[in-house]
Amino acid sequence: MKKRILTGDRPSGKLHLGHYVGSLANRVKLQDDYDQYILIADVQALTDNYENPEKVANSVRELLLDYVASGIDPEKSTIVIQSQLPAIAELTVFYLNMVSLNRVLRNPTVKAEIEQKGFGDTIPAGFAMYPVSQAADITAFEANVVPVGEDQLPMIEQTREIVRKFNNLYGETLVEPEALVGEFPRLIGLDGKAKMSKSLGNSIYLSDSPEEVNKKVMSMFTDPTRLKPTDPGHVEGNPVFIYHDAFNPNEEEVTDLKDRYVAGKVGDVEVKQKLAIAINNLLEPMRKRRSELEKNPELVNKILREGVEKARLVSGEVLEKVKKAMKIDYKF
Ligand code: TRP
Question: Which residues, in sequence order, are CB contacts of 235 under 8 Å at separation 6+?
């Protein structure tokens, strides 16, 4: 039997190139060899967008379009809306007994998000607990592998702790998952900041037009110590070359550009033009798949309906096992 994958994203906006190299590309590869489920985590998205539910609701279809555009094939991967699976909510309640308040607040990703969102001492409990609900997402599918970006590693670690605790207390019931990080666990932003991120406004989206891509690439940060094209430049840590390594399949061209850059024999403009071409080549088939699916809303409905149906069965069975292990599988 194929091993199971569960992975997902919060529907709270468009996906960008950081998502692509960090996890989407991996999922596209893995869908042939694994039984893959991809969760549109709307319940989790509401933990920090509960005041803005239309944003979450409107992003569900957008996320599906991003998935299919990036090469995720609904015939091979099952795409699921989290709020349609009551089993996940029930599992979350049970798992909350397996974690201490201190432990959830010590989760480095949660901690960073709390800081970033400026919650101060009014942290919504639902937000602080979302890693527990993520453990429910993962275990509800008995996932062996979770392909994610680097920022999600603490979630997988916490899931593993919950699984071990549950199994110790109630007997071997849950499957302990492993994280699988993509080739580029973290993509630097267009502005050279540590991370491409929607909130930092330094992203290229999978749905960007060729013109948007050209404009954004032309505005990218390069080597700040290089004032003229004839100055010897630095390749290491230079966002344009990090992107060439990530997105330009023409290795010969990349090596040539790097050599000339270091020697002061190429300008930023040429390096960027070639990068924009490479990124547009990657995005072009995505634009095609997106626009085809956009024309067919009934197919979108069908993908979502069938995904949920299949996932309800799988997660329902796991919930039964959990209830049995906890001795609350009453029959009367
Ligand atoms: N926390 C993930 C994110 O912010 C989304 C997510 C929800 C997820 N449930 C998941 C990822 C289960 C992997 C597995 O992107």
Answer: 241, 258, 261, 262
- Ligand 1 pocket: which of 34, 152, 157, 175 to mutate (most atoms <8 Å of CB)? 152
Asked whether the predicted pLDDT for residue 226 surpasses 80, the reply is yes
Question: pTM of the predicted model, to two decimals?
Answer: 0.94
pLDDT digits (tens, 9 = 90+) for 268-321: 999 999 999 999 999 999 999 999 999 999 999 999 999 999 999 999 999 999
Residue 301, number of CB atoms within 10 A of its CB: 11
Counts for the chain of helices (H) and strands (E), in that order: 15, 5
Ligand 1 neighbour 138 (Cβ under 6 A): yes
pLDDT higher at 137 or 181: 137
List all residues 6 or more positions away from 189 whose beta carbon is below 8 Å from its beta carbon: 195, 196, 197, 200, 202, 203, 239
